[in-house]
Amino acid sequence: GQNIDQPTEMTATEGAIVQINCTYQTSGFNGLFWYQQHAGEAPTFLSYNVLDGLEEKGRFSSFLSRSKGYSYLLLKELQMKDSASYLCAPMDSNYQLIWGAGTKLIIKP
Amino acid sequence: IAGITQAPTSQILAAGRRMTLRCTQDMRHNAMYWYRQDLGLGLRLIHYSNTAGTTGKGEVPDGYSVSRANTDDFPLTLASAVPSQTSVYFCASSAEGDYGANVLTFGAGSRLTVL
Q1: pLDDT tens digits along A4-16
Q2: Does position A68 have pLDDT exceeding 90, yes or no?
Q3: pLDDT score of B40
């Protein structure tokens, strides 16, 4: 079956760095997405990885290892506004996104 | 402002009633989707449409129907609502359906409570 595993909740301090891990099992693979979702709002796109390695985009970076079925999202210089849920979503062979339950990130001053 | 509009924002309805959630996009995206989001679960795909005139079933289609008469509109209908359909419903769209780098744009969501 298809499965996504990411921590339910994480806490970090403003200005610090946090890494949110995601492991996945899917039927085929066409890339992996990370979305950010603030409480009560819609998810918004953060990153897309289809090849192994690190993709950097400002304070956010995303890493993918296809052989290990593993990805992480790295957030640097944390700000209070980064408090949100982070959704890991690999895409299967039918181009359907398989969504994890999300990691709720709490930033403390 | 380009994007997706969903209506209603929130609705309470009695079990057994018929309900249509509306979704309109102005980005000329080919693909549209309906998801439900429940606490502790990932987004679950209800129905999708890769292009106007076609629709497909997602992971949890039972009790829901959709239509795609044109590019912009993708309404979701609950023929006879049940309490288990209490959820937050998100409509989304993307430029192409069967494509890898397929970034979704989401509407603001419709919170539905079935009593």
Answers
A1: 999 999 999 999 9
A2: yes
A3: 86
pLDDT of residue B100: 66
Distance in Å, alpha carbon of A89 to nearest chain B alpha carbon: 9
From chain B residues 55-74, the ones with a CB under 8 A of any chain A CB are: 58
pLDDT tens, residue by residue, B97-111? 666 678 999 999 999
C-alpha distance from residue A10 to each of A45, A81, B70 (Å): 20, 15, 43
The answer to whether the Cβ–Cβ distance between A95 and B100 falls below 8 Å is yes
Residue of B nearest to A104 (CA): B40
The CA distance from A108 to the nearest CA of chain B, in Å, is 23
Q: Which residues pair with A35 in a beta bridge?
A: A45, A87
| A48–B101 CB contact, under 8 Å | yes
Q: Quote the Cα angle for B15-B20-B25, to 5°.
A: 150
> Which residue would you say has higher pLDDT here, A89 or B95?
A89
Q: Does A56 reach chain B within 8 Å, measured CB to CB?
A: no
**Count of CB atoms situated within 10 Å of the CB of B14:** 8
